[in-house]
Amino acid sequence: MSAADRNRPAPGHENAAKAAHLSVMCAEVVSALNPRAGEVYVDGTFGAGGYSAALLAAADCQVIGIDRDPTVQVHADRLSAAHPDRFRLLQGRFGDMAELLAGIGVDAVDGVALDIGVSSMQLDQAARGFSFQQDGPLDMRMGDTGETAADLVNSRDEAELADIIYLYGEERRSRAVARAIVAARTEQPITRTGELASIVARVVRSTPGIHPATRTFQALRIAVNDELGELRRGLVGAERLLRPEGRLAVVSFHSLEDRVIKRFLDRRSGKLTGGSRHMPVAETAPRAPSFRPLHKGAATAGDAEMAINPRARSAKLRAAVRTAAPAWPDDDMQEAA
Questions:
Q1: pTM, two decimal places
Q2: Angle (CA) 100 102 105, round 5°
Q3: pLDDT tens digits for range 26-38
Q4: Tens-digit pLDDT profile for residues 208-264
Q5: What is the pLDDT of residue 280?
Q6: Shortest CA distance to 195 belongs to which of 136, 127, 125, 130?
Q7: What is the rounded CA–CA span in Å between residue 319 and residue 123?
Q8: Which of 121, 163, 256, 325 could form a disulfide with 288 if both were Cys (CB 3.0 to 4.6 A apart)?
């Protein structure tokens, strides 16, 4: 399921639109982090501030939010006004959290929360270009800099587009979609979400409950924002920052994201002792585990939350506790890909 589908209000739920703006599995994330007075926590994907607000309410702790989207400042201002000495927002990517926190003199924290993927607020704004259900500029940037989705679809060759759509969208008709995009852009540049959705719909068969453009839009969004690379960097950053017994809680919504998180935690906890089958690792001695799982496997949202918040239906929470072992080398994340 794409981020667009998981954020679409479900028929019959009058509270769905409101629920779409709630942080998914918020209670479970706070429980996993177990906030305590005097400790410091990072909300690496601040958004509307749901996790931050819940952490601040749970204990007399400090919270540092991070977000690359400048439009979230209004939510940060609200929390800053309510907790002037306990909350602050840093603008930037959560993959750069270690460097961002070093810039304010923080070199260790007690917990990190991450909610991976596009936010419902971004989907709801047609001008952001994330949604195929609302016509808008073909943008898809989570921040306000860098290449847009329009830049990508109008400049990449057919083979590269097909690879992006297949790898990040798991779209079986990726080659046909890429051909259709290249053919359409010879007539005029593709600049609107509605245009692209129509192009894809001509070559991808519709299935019940899933728009034909779902997987293509997901793939372009992931590519534009380097979401999987950002996730890997964020996990490594959290490993560097967390004190012994500090906690990491990551909520994801798609198998691509969850696979990266699972392999990272399995490897760091000693469950996986080698690289992937494509990249075996020869180690002279096993590295000491830098994490231990907080619970077996991934936790999922409860029935009550899923009933009012469609986004929770595909959510998975993985959490772990930092050990006293040194952080592993950065290049080890290539093995977790």
A1: 0.85
A2: 125
A3: 999 999 999 999 9
A4: 878 899 899 999 999 999 999 999 999 999 999 999 999 999 999 989 999 999 999
A5: 54
A6: 136
A7: 27
A8: 325
**What is the Cα–Cα distance from 331 to 325, expressed in whole angstroms?**
17
Check pLDDT > 50 for residue 127. no
pLDDT exceeds cutoff 80 at 73? yes
Q: Which residue positions form the known binding site for S-adenosyl-L-methionine?
A: 49-51, 67, 94, 115, 122
What domains lie within the chain, and their CATH numbers?
3-120+227-334 (3.40.50.150), 128-225 (1.10.150.170)
Task: Please enumerate, by residue number, every residue annotated as part of a binding site.
Answer: 49-51, 67, 94, 115, 122
How many Å from the N-terminal Cα to the C-terminal Cα in the chain? Answer: 21
Rounded Cα distance between 209 and 178, Å, is 23
Distance CA 109, CA 43 (A): 11
Residue 194 has pLDDT above 80, yes or no: yes
- b/e per residue 6-32 (b: at least 16 CB within 10 A): bbbbeeeeeebeebbbbbbbbebbbbb
Residue 116 has pLDDT above 60, yes or no: yes
N residues, the chain: 337
